[in-house]
Amino acid sequence: MQNLFIAGIKHSGKTTFARLLAKRLELESVDSDDLVLRRIAPLSIREYYAKEGKESFMRTELDAIKEFVSTQESAFIMSLGGGASDNSELIEYIRENGKLIYLRRKEKEMLPVILKHGIPAFLDPEDLEGSFHRLYQKRDGIYRTIADKTVDMGCYRDRAETLESLLEQLEDIIDER
User: Which of 6, 83, 105, 162 is deepest in the core (most CB within 10 A)?
Assistant: First the structure.
């Protein structure tokens, strides 16, 4: 059975739909951010990233995911952090241990959603739109290249309908399980 790793830009619905998929498929659901938080407590991910830097964060994320995967006896669905595309070692590990699903949303829909939660460390406060555009273009290009499946999430309003659409689009991958 294949593990499913759900990737996408920050706030694209990764955790929400990983949990819904897992429930429907009767699999365990885990969020890689939760695995990281166990290692860096009492810091938040934003605090750790700001204090220790990107490279340290990426190593911690990889180590946390490797540890989790090594303890699993059955398939699971894991939502990844929004910056997983920047971590080539992590992507290589994931592709060796399951299928990578990219939940793609349009760029123009994403920035307002992200900013509802404050300005993340990876955006330039002096050039929010420009820095997000560059980041989106980079990560979207990577995810579309490396993903086993890209799912266009559209501008979802109804979770149940979106879940049904997601299941339909993943039918070929789910059948491989």
Answer: 6
- Is the preceding peptide bond at 120 cis, omega within 30 degrees of 0? no
Sheet holding 149-152, edge to edge: 28-31, 76-79, 4-7, 99-104, 149-152
Residue 172 falls within a domain, yes or no? no
Q: How far apart are the first and last CA of the chain?
A: 4
pLDDT tens per residue across span 90-117: 999 999 999 999 999 988 888 888 888 8
* Predicted TM-score (pTM) of this structure: 0.89
For residue 25, give the nearest of 106, 99, 105 by alpha carbon.
Answer: 99
Task: Say if 158 falls within a structural domain.
Answer: yes
Confidence category of residue 1, pLDDT binned at 50, 70, 90: low
Instruction: Name the token pair of 143.
Output: 């995810």
Nearest to 95 by CA among 166, 15, 3, 177: 3
Q: Is 13 among the domain residues?
A: yes
